[in-house]
Specification:
The structure holds two protein chains of two kinds. Chain A is an all-alpha fold. Chain A is 52% helix and 0% strand. Classes of the chains: A mainly alpha, B alpha/beta. At the A-B interface, helix 1 of A face helix 4, helix 7 and helix 8 of B.
Chain lengths: 56, 463
Protein backbone atom coordinates (compact mmCIF):
# COMPACT_ATOMS: atom_id res chain seq x y z
CA UNK A 1 0.00 0.00 0.00
CA UNK A 2 1.32 3.47 -0.86
CA UNK A 3 1.24 5.93 2.01
CA UNK A 4 1.51 9.56 1.11
CA UNK A 5 3.78 10.90 3.84
CA UNK A 6 4.29 14.54 4.69
CA UNK A 7 8.02 14.46 5.29
CA UNK A 8 8.99 17.85 6.57
CA UNK A 9 12.14 17.06 8.54
CA UNK A 10 15.38 16.03 6.92
CA UNK A 11 16.13 12.48 8.06
CA UNK A 12 19.78 13.40 7.70
CA UNK A 13 22.15 12.23 5.01
CA UNK A 14 23.16 8.66 5.70
CA UNK A 15 20.74 8.34 8.62
CA UNK A 16 18.70 5.63 6.88
CA UNK A 17 21.85 3.69 6.04
CA UNK A 18 23.01 4.00 9.65
CA UNK A 19 19.71 2.60 10.89
CA UNK A 20 20.16 -0.39 8.62
CA UNK A 21 23.68 -0.98 9.97
CA UNK A 22 22.64 -0.40 13.58
CA UNK A 23 19.65 -2.74 13.24
CA UNK A 24 21.93 -5.36 11.65
CA UNK A 25 24.53 -5.15 14.42
CA UNK A 26 21.82 -5.25 17.09
CA UNK A 27 20.31 -8.31 15.41
CA UNK A 28 23.68 -10.12 15.50
CA UNK A 29 24.30 -8.99 19.12
CA UNK A 30 20.90 -10.33 20.12
CA UNK A 31 21.52 -13.65 18.31
CA UNK A 32 24.70 -14.23 20.34
CA UNK A 33 23.05 -13.05 23.53
CA UNK A 34 20.30 -15.64 23.05
CA UNK A 35 22.88 -18.40 22.45
CA UNK A 36 24.73 -17.30 25.59
CA UNK A 37 21.51 -17.37 27.61
CA UNK A 38 20.64 -20.83 26.23
CA UNK A 39 24.07 -22.28 27.13
CA UNK A 40 23.88 -20.64 30.55
CA UNK A 41 20.45 -22.17 31.11
CA UNK A 42 21.91 -25.69 30.49
CA UNK A 43 24.26 -25.24 33.45
CA UNK A 44 21.90 -23.39 35.73
CA UNK A 45 19.26 -25.14 37.79
CA UNK A 46 15.79 -23.70 37.46
CA UNK A 47 14.70 -22.55 40.94
CA UNK A 48 12.31 -24.98 42.64
CA UNK A 49 8.77 -23.88 43.25
CA UNK A 50 8.22 -22.90 46.87
CA UNK A 51 6.35 -25.57 48.81
CA UNK A 52 2.75 -24.85 49.71
CA UNK A 53 3.25 -25.75 53.35
CA UNK A 54 6.53 -24.50 54.72
CA UNK A 55 8.06 -26.74 57.39
CA UNK A 56 6.98 -25.84 60.88
CA UNK B 1 -6.45 33.76 7.98
CA UNK B 2 -9.26 35.65 9.64
CA UNK B 3 -8.17 39.13 10.85
CA UNK B 4 -8.11 38.32 14.57
CA UNK B 5 -6.36 34.94 14.23
CA UNK B 6 -2.58 34.92 14.60
CA UNK B 7 -0.31 32.04 13.66
CA UNK B 8 2.05 30.99 16.47
CA UNK B 9 5.59 32.16 15.52
CA UNK B 10 7.08 28.68 16.13
CA UNK B 11 4.43 26.83 14.11
CA UNK B 12 5.61 27.04 10.53
CA UNK B 13 7.70 23.93 9.81
CA UNK B 14 5.14 21.18 9.48
CA UNK B 15 2.67 21.40 6.55
CA UNK B 16 0.23 19.11 8.46
CA UNK B 17 -1.22 22.05 10.34
CA UNK B 18 -0.34 24.92 12.68
CA UNK B 19 -1.07 26.56 16.01
CA UNK B 20 -2.87 29.87 16.06
CA UNK B 21 -4.28 32.23 18.63
CA UNK B 22 -7.71 33.75 18.45
CA UNK B 23 -9.28 35.93 21.16
CA UNK B 24 -6.56 34.87 23.58
CA UNK B 25 -7.20 31.13 23.07
CA UNK B 26 -4.68 28.79 21.43
CA UNK B 27 -5.99 26.43 18.72
CA UNK B 28 -4.45 23.87 16.39
CA UNK B 29 -5.51 23.58 12.78
CA UNK B 30 -5.29 20.25 10.97
CA UNK B 31 -4.78 20.85 7.26
CA UNK B 32 -6.69 18.96 4.56
CA UNK B 33 -3.41 17.52 3.29
CA UNK B 34 -3.00 15.64 6.62
CA UNK B 35 -6.62 14.34 6.75
CA UNK B 36 -5.75 10.68 5.96
CA UNK B 37 -3.13 10.50 8.73
CA UNK B 38 -5.16 12.38 11.32
CA UNK B 39 -8.28 10.28 10.71
CA UNK B 40 -6.25 7.09 11.13
CA UNK B 41 -4.71 8.49 14.33
CA UNK B 42 -8.19 9.01 15.80
CA UNK B 43 -9.94 5.95 14.35
CA UNK B 44 -7.17 3.51 15.33
CA UNK B 45 -7.73 4.42 18.99
CA UNK B 46 -4.17 5.79 19.31
CA UNK B 47 -5.32 9.26 20.42
CA UNK B 48 -7.71 7.76 23.02
CA UNK B 49 -5.00 5.46 24.38
CA UNK B 50 -2.31 8.14 24.60
CA UNK B 51 -4.56 10.72 26.29
CA UNK B 52 -5.85 8.12 28.77
CA UNK B 53 -2.24 7.29 29.62
CA UNK B 54 -1.54 11.06 29.98
CA UNK B 55 1.22 10.83 27.39
CA UNK B 56 -0.44 13.22 24.94
CA UNK B 57 -2.28 16.47 25.55
CA UNK B 58 -6.04 16.12 25.06
CA UNK B 59 -8.11 18.43 22.89
CA UNK B 60 -11.65 19.32 21.93
CA UNK B 61 -12.65 19.35 18.26
CA UNK B 62 -14.29 22.65 17.33
CA UNK B 63 -17.06 22.53 14.71
CA UNK B 64 -15.91 25.65 12.96
CA UNK B 65 -12.98 26.77 10.80
CA UNK B 66 -11.79 29.45 13.22
CA UNK B 67 -8.68 30.45 11.28
CA UNK B 68 -10.67 31.08 8.10
CA UNK B 69 -7.90 29.29 6.18
CA UNK B 70 -9.29 27.37 3.14
CA UNK B 71 -6.67 24.62 3.71
CA UNK B 72 -8.19 23.83 7.10
CA UNK B 73 -9.69 20.39 7.70
CA UNK B 74 -10.32 20.58 11.46
CA UNK B 75 -9.81 22.98 14.35
CA UNK B 76 -8.68 21.56 17.68
CA UNK B 77 -8.59 23.27 21.04
CA UNK B 78 -5.82 21.63 23.10
CA UNK B 79 -5.83 21.60 26.89
CA UNK B 80 -3.98 24.68 28.13
CA UNK B 81 -0.37 24.37 29.34
CA UNK B 82 0.21 26.80 32.22
CA UNK B 83 3.87 27.53 31.67
CA UNK B 84 5.98 26.87 28.58
CA UNK B 85 9.57 25.79 29.23
CA UNK B 86 12.36 24.80 26.88
CA UNK B 87 14.89 21.93 26.96
CA UNK B 88 17.82 24.30 27.60
CA UNK B 89 16.11 25.11 30.92
CA UNK B 90 15.69 21.46 31.93
CA UNK B 91 17.98 19.43 34.14
CA UNK B 92 19.50 16.08 33.16
CA UNK B 93 16.70 13.90 34.57
CA UNK B 94 14.07 16.16 33.02
CA UNK B 95 15.62 15.71 29.56
CA UNK B 96 16.05 11.99 30.22
CA UNK B 97 12.36 11.57 31.10
CA UNK B 98 11.37 13.55 28.01
CA UNK B 99 13.60 11.26 25.90
CA UNK B 100 12.05 8.12 27.41
CA UNK B 101 8.56 9.52 26.77
CA UNK B 102 9.47 10.11 23.12
CA UNK B 103 10.70 6.51 22.72
CA UNK B 104 7.62 5.16 24.48
CA UNK B 105 5.46 7.16 22.05
CA UNK B 106 7.27 5.62 19.07
CA UNK B 107 6.47 2.15 20.41
CA UNK B 108 2.86 3.11 21.18
CA UNK B 109 2.42 4.64 17.74
CA UNK B 110 3.86 1.58 15.96
CA UNK B 111 1.39 -0.67 17.80
CA UNK B 112 -1.44 1.40 16.27
CA UNK B 113 0.06 1.43 12.75
CA UNK B 114 1.50 4.92 13.16
CA UNK B 115 4.94 6.47 13.52
CA UNK B 116 6.26 9.54 15.32
CA UNK B 117 7.48 11.71 12.49
CA UNK B 118 9.57 14.08 14.63
CA UNK B 119 11.51 13.74 17.87
CA UNK B 120 12.21 17.18 19.26
CA UNK B 121 12.07 18.04 22.97
CA UNK B 122 10.15 21.22 22.04
CA UNK B 123 7.12 18.94 21.49
CA UNK B 124 7.19 18.04 25.18
CA UNK B 125 6.06 20.16 28.12
CA UNK B 126 5.82 19.79 31.88
CA UNK B 127 2.13 19.58 32.69
CA UNK B 128 0.42 18.66 35.97
CA UNK B 129 3.53 17.05 37.44
CA UNK B 130 4.72 15.06 34.43
CA UNK B 131 6.07 15.42 30.92
CA UNK B 132 3.46 15.27 28.19
CA UNK B 133 3.66 15.32 24.40
CA UNK B 134 1.89 18.34 22.91
CA UNK B 135 2.10 17.91 19.13
CA UNK B 136 -1.03 16.02 18.07
CA UNK B 137 0.02 16.18 14.41
CA UNK B 138 3.29 14.27 14.89
CA UNK B 139 1.61 10.91 14.33
CA UNK B 140 1.64 9.71 10.76
CA UNK B 141 0.69 6.40 9.09
CA UNK B 142 3.54 3.90 9.42
CA UNK B 143 5.22 2.40 6.39
CA UNK B 144 6.92 -0.70 7.80
CA UNK B 145 9.53 -0.81 5.05
CA UNK B 146 10.96 2.55 6.01
CA UNK B 147 13.40 3.45 8.82
CA UNK B 148 12.55 6.07 11.46
CA UNK B 149 12.66 9.50 9.87
CA UNK B 150 13.25 11.22 13.21
CA UNK B 151 16.17 8.99 14.27
CA UNK B 152 18.88 11.58 13.66
CA UNK B 153 16.75 14.28 15.30
CA UNK B 154 16.40 12.09 18.40
CA UNK B 155 20.15 11.42 18.52
CA UNK B 156 20.99 15.12 18.17
CA UNK B 157 18.31 16.60 20.44
CA UNK B 158 18.08 14.05 23.24
CA UNK B 159 20.80 11.42 23.14
CA UNK B 160 23.71 13.77 22.44
CA UNK B 161 23.13 16.22 25.33
CA UNK B 162 22.35 13.34 27.71
CA UNK B 163 25.54 11.46 26.80
CA UNK B 164 27.65 14.61 27.19
CA UNK B 165 26.23 15.21 30.69
CA UNK B 166 26.60 11.53 31.58
CA UNK B 167 30.26 11.28 30.57
CA UNK B 168 31.43 14.73 31.66
CA UNK B 169 29.36 14.82 34.87
CA UNK B 170 28.49 18.43 34.22
CA UNK B 171 25.63 20.42 32.82
CA UNK B 172 25.42 21.18 29.05
CA UNK B 173 22.21 23.23 28.83
CA UNK B 174 23.97 26.18 27.23
CA UNK B 175 25.00 24.01 24.28
CA UNK B 176 21.36 23.07 23.66
CA UNK B 177 20.52 26.78 23.66
CA UNK B 178 23.06 27.32 20.89
CA UNK B 179 21.69 24.41 18.85
CA UNK B 180 17.89 24.46 19.24
CA UNK B 181 17.50 21.92 16.43
CA UNK B 182 19.87 19.49 18.12
CA UNK B 183 23.65 19.42 18.61
CA UNK B 184 25.21 18.15 15.35
CA UNK B 185 26.42 14.54 15.64
CA UNK B 186 29.93 15.45 14.53
CA UNK B 187 30.21 17.89 17.47
CA UNK B 188 28.80 15.36 19.96
CA UNK B 189 31.26 12.75 18.69
CA UNK B 190 34.19 15.16 19.12
CA UNK B 191 33.13 16.19 22.62
CA UNK B 192 32.56 12.66 23.92
CA UNK B 193 35.53 10.94 25.59
CA UNK B 194 37.14 8.00 23.76
CA UNK B 195 35.86 5.56 26.38
CA UNK B 196 32.30 6.20 25.14
CA UNK B 197 33.22 4.01 22.12
CA UNK B 198 33.26 0.98 24.41
CA UNK B 199 29.51 1.21 24.93
CA UNK B 200 27.97 -0.67 21.97
CA UNK B 201 24.83 1.49 21.89
CA UNK B 202 26.76 4.78 22.11
CA UNK B 203 29.22 3.58 19.50
CA UNK B 204 26.43 2.74 17.07
CA UNK B 205 24.05 5.67 17.64
CA UNK B 206 26.68 8.40 17.86
CA UNK B 207 30.11 7.38 16.59
CA UNK B 208 29.06 5.24 13.61
CA UNK B 209 26.11 7.56 12.93
CA UNK B 210 28.35 10.65 12.85
CA UNK B 211 30.99 8.96 10.68
CA UNK B 212 28.51 7.72 8.09
CA UNK B 213 26.51 10.97 8.07
CA UNK B 214 29.67 12.93 7.45
CA UNK B 215 31.21 10.55 4.91
CA UNK B 216 30.78 10.05 1.16
CA UNK B 217 28.43 7.13 1.72
CA UNK B 218 25.97 9.68 3.07
CA UNK B 219 25.21 10.77 -0.46
CA UNK B 220 24.18 7.30 -1.44
CA UNK B 221 20.44 7.59 -2.01
CA UNK B 222 19.75 3.92 -2.57
CA UNK B 223 16.44 2.64 -1.20
CA UNK B 224 16.75 1.07 2.23
CA UNK B 225 14.28 -1.66 3.14
CA UNK B 226 13.53 -1.77 6.84
CA UNK B 227 11.11 -3.82 8.95
CA UNK B 228 8.97 -3.37 12.06
CA UNK B 229 11.23 -5.74 14.00
CA UNK B 230 14.29 -3.71 13.09
CA UNK B 231 12.50 -0.52 14.04
CA UNK B 232 11.60 -1.90 17.48
CA UNK B 233 15.18 -3.19 17.97
CA UNK B 234 16.44 0.30 17.20
CA UNK B 235 14.05 1.98 19.62
CA UNK B 236 14.73 -0.61 22.34
CA UNK B 237 18.45 -0.05 21.93
CA UNK B 238 17.99 3.72 22.34
CA UNK B 239 15.82 3.07 25.38
CA UNK B 240 18.41 0.77 26.99
CA UNK B 241 21.08 3.39 26.40
CA UNK B 242 19.04 6.33 27.78
CA UNK B 243 17.87 4.30 30.79
CA UNK B 244 21.48 3.59 31.74
CA UNK B 245 22.58 7.24 31.71
CA UNK B 246 23.14 9.03 35.03
CA UNK B 247 23.97 12.56 36.09
CA UNK B 248 26.48 11.61 38.73
CA UNK B 249 27.72 15.06 39.78
CA UNK B 250 27.82 14.58 43.53
CA UNK B 251 27.95 18.09 44.86
CA UNK B 252 27.78 21.65 43.64
CA UNK B 253 28.46 24.94 45.45
CA UNK B 254 24.88 25.26 46.64
CA UNK B 255 23.53 21.70 46.63
CA UNK B 256 23.77 21.18 50.41
CA UNK B 257 22.53 24.67 51.22
CA UNK B 258 19.46 23.78 53.29
CA UNK B 259 21.32 21.14 55.23
CA UNK B 260 23.88 23.77 56.19
CA UNK B 261 21.37 26.63 56.57
CA UNK B 262 19.18 24.51 58.83
CA UNK B 263 22.04 24.27 61.31
CA UNK B 264 21.93 28.03 61.79
CA UNK B 265 19.59 27.93 64.79
CA UNK B 266 16.03 27.95 63.51
CA UNK B 267 16.75 30.21 60.53
CA UNK B 268 14.77 28.19 57.95
CA UNK B 269 11.76 27.66 60.26
CA UNK B 270 11.60 31.33 61.22
CA UNK B 271 11.83 32.35 57.58
CA UNK B 272 9.04 29.94 56.65
CA UNK B 273 6.78 31.30 59.40
CA UNK B 274 7.20 34.91 58.29
CA UNK B 275 6.72 34.12 54.59
CA UNK B 276 3.68 31.89 55.20
CA UNK B 277 1.98 34.68 57.14
CA UNK B 278 2.79 37.27 54.47
CA UNK B 279 1.51 35.05 51.64
CA UNK B 280 -1.81 34.57 53.47
CA UNK B 281 -2.34 38.31 53.34
CA UNK B 282 -1.86 38.55 49.54
CA UNK B 283 -5.19 38.00 47.79
CA UNK B 284 -5.59 35.66 44.77
CA UNK B 285 -2.10 34.61 43.72
CA UNK B 286 -2.53 32.67 40.47
CA UNK B 287 1.16 32.16 39.75
CA UNK B 288 4.34 32.59 41.75
CA UNK B 289 8.02 32.32 40.92
CA UNK B 290 10.71 31.27 43.36
CA UNK B 291 13.88 32.79 41.90
CA UNK B 292 17.07 31.34 43.33
CA UNK B 293 14.97 28.40 44.52
CA UNK B 294 17.89 26.08 45.37
CA UNK B 295 16.23 22.72 46.13
CA UNK B 296 12.80 24.31 46.39
CA UNK B 297 12.10 24.40 50.14
CA UNK B 298 10.09 27.62 49.77
CA UNK B 299 8.51 26.61 46.44
CA UNK B 300 6.95 23.74 48.36
CA UNK B 301 5.52 26.20 50.86
CA UNK B 302 3.67 27.95 48.00
CA UNK B 303 2.73 24.66 46.34
CA UNK B 304 1.09 23.46 49.56
CA UNK B 305 -1.14 26.54 49.39
CA UNK B 306 -2.23 25.49 45.86
CA UNK B 307 -0.21 28.24 44.20
CA UNK B 308 1.46 27.14 40.93
CA UNK B 309 5.18 27.91 41.15
CA UNK B 310 8.05 28.29 38.73
CA UNK B 311 11.13 27.30 40.74
CA UNK B 312 14.26 28.63 39.05
CA UNK B 313 17.91 28.34 39.99
CA UNK B 314 21.16 28.50 38.06
CA UNK B 315 22.53 25.42 39.84
CA UNK B 316 21.69 22.45 37.61
CA UNK B 317 22.36 19.89 40.35
CA UNK B 318 19.94 21.62 42.76
CA UNK B 319 17.24 21.71 40.09
CA UNK B 320 17.87 18.08 39.18
CA UNK B 321 17.58 17.02 42.82
CA UNK B 322 14.44 19.12 43.23
CA UNK B 323 12.93 17.63 40.06
CA UNK B 324 13.44 14.12 41.45
CA UNK B 325 11.85 15.19 44.74
CA UNK B 326 8.83 16.62 42.89
CA UNK B 327 8.52 13.42 40.88
CA UNK B 328 8.66 11.09 43.85
CA UNK B 329 6.24 13.23 45.90
CA UNK B 330 3.89 13.60 42.87
CA UNK B 331 3.77 17.39 43.27
CA UNK B 332 1.74 18.73 40.36
CA UNK B 333 2.07 22.51 40.56
CA UNK B 334 5.81 23.17 40.58
CA UNK B 335 7.83 23.74 37.41
CA UNK B 336 11.56 23.39 38.15
CA UNK B 337 13.88 25.26 35.77
CA UNK B 338 17.57 26.02 35.34
CA UNK B 339 17.79 29.78 34.93
CA UNK B 340 20.78 32.05 35.48
CA UNK B 341 19.19 35.34 36.52
CA UNK B 342 22.26 37.26 35.40
CA UNK B 343 21.68 35.81 31.91
CA UNK B 344 18.08 34.54 31.67
CA UNK B 345 16.97 32.58 28.56
CA UNK B 346 16.75 34.94 25.58
CA UNK B 347 14.14 34.89 22.82
CA UNK B 348 15.49 32.62 20.07
CA UNK B 349 14.61 31.13 16.70
CA UNK B 350 13.33 32.73 13.50
CA UNK B 351 12.87 36.49 14.01
CA UNK B 352 13.71 35.86 17.70
CA UNK B 353 10.09 34.83 18.08
CA UNK B 354 9.96 31.03 18.19
CA UNK B 355 10.94 30.52 21.80
CA UNK B 356 10.24 33.47 24.03
CA UNK B 357 12.52 34.94 26.67
CA UNK B 358 12.30 33.92 30.31
CA UNK B 359 11.25 37.44 31.28
CA UNK B 360 8.26 37.43 28.95
CA UNK B 361 7.15 34.04 30.28
CA UNK B 362 7.81 34.71 33.96
CA UNK B 363 4.92 37.03 34.66
CA UNK B 364 3.97 36.26 38.25
CA UNK B 365 1.72 37.68 40.95
CA UNK B 366 4.37 36.91 43.53
CA UNK B 367 8.12 36.45 43.37
CA UNK B 368 10.22 35.01 46.18
CA UNK B 369 13.84 36.16 46.04
CA UNK B 370 15.35 34.58 49.12
CA UNK B 371 19.06 34.67 49.88
CA UNK B 372 19.60 35.83 46.32
CA UNK B 373 20.43 39.54 46.39
CA UNK B 374 24.09 39.07 47.43
CA UNK B 375 24.67 36.62 44.57
CA UNK B 376 23.41 39.17 42.06
CA UNK B 377 24.83 42.34 43.64
CA UNK B 378 28.18 41.02 44.86
CA UNK B 379 28.63 37.74 42.96
CA UNK B 380 27.67 39.26 39.61
CA UNK B 381 28.25 42.99 40.24
CA UNK B 382 24.66 43.88 39.25
CA UNK B 383 23.62 47.25 40.74
CA UNK B 384 20.50 47.39 42.99
CA UNK B 385 18.88 49.63 40.38
CA UNK B 386 18.99 46.92 37.70
CA UNK B 387 17.88 44.21 40.14
CA UNK B 388 14.90 46.27 41.34
CA UNK B 389 13.92 47.11 37.73
CA UNK B 390 14.10 43.40 36.81
CA UNK B 391 11.80 42.34 39.66
CA UNK B 392 9.33 45.14 38.88
CA UNK B 393 9.04 43.76 35.33
CA UNK B 394 8.15 40.24 36.40
CA UNK B 395 5.94 40.54 39.47
CA UNK B 396 3.39 42.55 41.38
CA UNK B 397 4.29 41.29 44.86
CA UNK B 398 7.85 40.65 45.96
CA UNK B 399 9.19 38.94 49.04
CA UNK B 400 12.91 39.58 49.11
CA UNK B 401 15.63 38.84 51.63
CA UNK B 402 18.44 41.30 52.24
CA UNK B 403 21.69 39.63 53.29
CA UNK B 404 24.09 42.16 54.89
CA UNK B 405 27.85 42.26 54.43
CA UNK B 406 28.38 40.93 57.95
CA UNK B 407 26.73 37.64 56.95
CA UNK B 408 28.99 34.57 56.62
CA UNK B 409 27.82 33.87 53.06
CA UNK B 410 28.60 37.41 51.90
CA UNK B 411 32.01 37.20 53.57
CA UNK B 412 32.56 34.00 51.60
CA UNK B 413 31.71 35.79 48.33
CA UNK B 414 34.13 38.60 49.22
CA UNK B 415 36.93 36.29 50.30
CA UNK B 416 38.84 36.42 47.02
CA UNK B 417 37.45 39.68 45.75
CA UNK B 418 38.24 43.29 46.44
CA UNK B 419 35.39 44.89 48.38
CA UNK B 420 34.29 47.54 45.90
CA UNK B 421 30.71 47.28 47.11
CA UNK B 422 30.53 50.37 49.28
CA UNK B 423 26.91 50.92 48.23
CA UNK B 424 25.89 47.44 49.40
CA UNK B 425 23.91 48.14 52.55
CA UNK B 426 20.31 47.95 53.66
CA UNK B 427 19.78 51.71 53.52
CA UNK B 428 20.74 51.91 49.83
CA UNK B 429 18.86 48.72 49.07
CA UNK B 430 15.67 50.21 50.52
CA UNK B 431 16.05 53.62 48.91
CA UNK B 432 16.56 52.11 45.43
CA UNK B 433 13.85 49.45 45.71
CA UNK B 434 11.44 52.17 46.90
CA UNK B 435 11.62 53.70 43.42
CA UNK B 436 9.89 50.61 42.05
CA UNK B 437 8.06 49.10 45.02
CA UNK B 438 6.09 50.17 48.10
CA UNK B 439 7.68 48.48 51.08
CA UNK B 440 4.86 46.96 53.12
CA UNK B 441 6.71 44.95 55.76
CA UNK B 442 10.21 44.43 57.18
CA UNK B 443 11.23 41.62 59.50
CA UNK B 444 14.55 40.29 60.78
CA UNK B 445 14.84 36.50 60.45
CA UNK B 446 15.38 34.85 63.84
CA UNK B 447 18.73 35.61 65.43
CA UNK B 448 20.44 36.36 62.12
CA UNK B 449 21.17 39.74 60.56
CA UNK B 450 19.19 38.86 57.46
CA UNK B 451 16.08 40.92 56.76
CA UNK B 452 12.92 39.98 54.87
CA UNK B 453 10.92 42.61 52.98
CA UNK B 454 7.44 42.39 51.58
CA UNK B 455 6.91 44.80 48.68
CA UNK B 456 4.28 45.69 46.12
CA UNK B 457 5.12 47.18 42.75
CA UNK B 458 4.34 50.85 42.15
CA UNK B 459 2.46 51.32 38.92
CA UNK B 460 4.79 53.73 37.21
CA UNK B 461 3.39 55.86 34.41
CA UNK B 462 4.55 54.60 30.97
CA UNK B 463 7.73 56.36 29.82
Amino acid sequence: MMIHQLLYIDPGSGSYLVQLIVAGVLGVAMFFKNIKLYIKSLFTRTPKKPKDNPPA
Amino acid sequence: MSPNAFMHPASYRDPSGFMFEKDGVLYRQVNKVFKEHYDHFIQSGCYKFLTEESRLISHQTIDENLSGDPEGYLTLKPEKIDFISYPYEWSFDMLKDAALLTLQLVKDAVSFGLILKDATPYNIQWHKGKFIFIDTLSFEKYNETEPWIAYRQFCESFLGPLLLMHYHKTSFQQLSLSYPEGIPLTIIKKLLPSKSRFSLHTYLHIHVHATISGGNKANNNRKVIFSKKKMLNLVNSLETLVNGLRFSQQESTWSAYYEEAGKRDDYIDQKKKIIAAWIEAIPSITRAADLGANEGEFSKLLSEKNIPVVAADFDSLCINNFYNQIKSASIKNIQPLIIDLSNPSPAIGVNNEEHSSFLSRCQADLVLALALIHHLAIGKNIPFEKIAAFFSRVTEHLIIEFVPKEDEKVKMLLKNKKDIYTEYNEKNFVSIFEKYFSILERKIVGKTERVLFKMKVINLPPQ
